Amino acid sequence: MTTPASSVRMPIVIYVFALSAFALGFTEFVTIGLVSNIAASLEVDVAQVGGAVAAFAIGATIGAPILTALGASWSRKNLLLAAMAVFTLCNVMVALSDSLPALLAARFGSGLGHGVFLAVASSAATRLVAPERAGSAVATVFGGLTLALAFGVPLGTWLGGLWSWQVIFFGVAACGAVGLFGLAVLMPDAKDGGAPRDALVSLRALLNGKLLGAALITVLAYTGSFCLFSYISPLLIEVTGMAPGHVGAMMLVYGVAAAIGNVVGGRMTDRLGADCAVMLVLIGLAIVLAAIWLSAASIPLMAVLVAVLGALTYAAVPAMQARVIGIAEHHAPRALAAAAGLNIAGFNSGIALGSLIGGGVIPIMGLAATAAIGAAAAIAGIAVLLFQRR
């Protein structure tokens, strides 16, 4: 791997990472807008197709820490190429699926590639720039993922009305192939892989208390955010009183704010340091979620608060990722990619856990209570961070 660059401009390959991350994120979120189309095509229930979203997330959760650790002896370039090749091939298999089991298996494989790629790309990006620009480099990589969040669901719903869902997944595979070619040409081809024993070192790093503690903060932050956001549509319709036709526009506002928050989070991490940036994001999440709980019946306030929630949720990405990589540099320097993967697993675990907790809270306490429980999770994250800093 090349030594960190001190120039102001990002290396071009980091933008290739971002393009690839867009394809990775788009295939995750576009499925939400295509569930009905896929269910009708495969002649199964919508709820069964919903498992395609879960299969992808499970693959990402497993792939990010474990497969990245097992590939520690590979060069970063070869590991990235392998991840994008698996992702691209599995999206072709999704497009060719003629049964639900085939679809779920292909989605799981696609998620494996997603998790490995983001783990390795985010750690590699910090090594391709000067240390003081690590946050911005990670933000650039995840910027592609955030744009996919902003436009994946609405664009997928729109495209689903124009083309078949198979064509859309073939398009995702084509984007993956472009990213694969860009990596092959532009990624530095240094001998940065370790010895085979480094796989064991990386696997042991997944049990490092400091890294697990850092990933726990990520889990708590995203549990808090997605405890509410997983049910934002029924909340806005049933509690806030927003017209169903306006909810899609509100989701687009959330996504655009998320893209802005991702950039701001990267710059904040560079200027203030990862610990301070993470603390500010956690405090912001706790305040905003509490405000949503108290203001859920107000359309004007909710329009503002949902946008701020999107900005804070994705400002957390570069800050938390840079923090975990920074901790790994001191405590597990031979397992940076595995450490990054552990944090990505934390993101996915937090999203899944938040959805489950929110689903359990609603029948007992109502939709608005998901915001209160979310705020409590963010406060727990603050407490863990304060403990770790001691």
Distance between the termini: 35 Å
Mean pLDDT: 84
Radius of gyration: 20 Å
CATH architecture of the largest domain: Up-down Bundle
Which class do the helix and strand fractions yield? mainly alpha
Please characterize this protein's 3D structure.
Helices cover 84% and strands 0% of the residues. The protein has 390 residues and is mostly helical. It folds into 2 domains: 1-194, MFS general substrate transporter like domains (Growth Hormone, Chain: A), CATH 1.20.1250.20; 197-390, MFS general substrate transporter like domains (Growth Hormone, Chain: A, Up-down Bundle), CATH 1.20.1250. Helix 1 runs antiparallel to helix 7 and helix 3 (51-70) crosses helix 5. The longest helix has 33 residues, at 299-331.
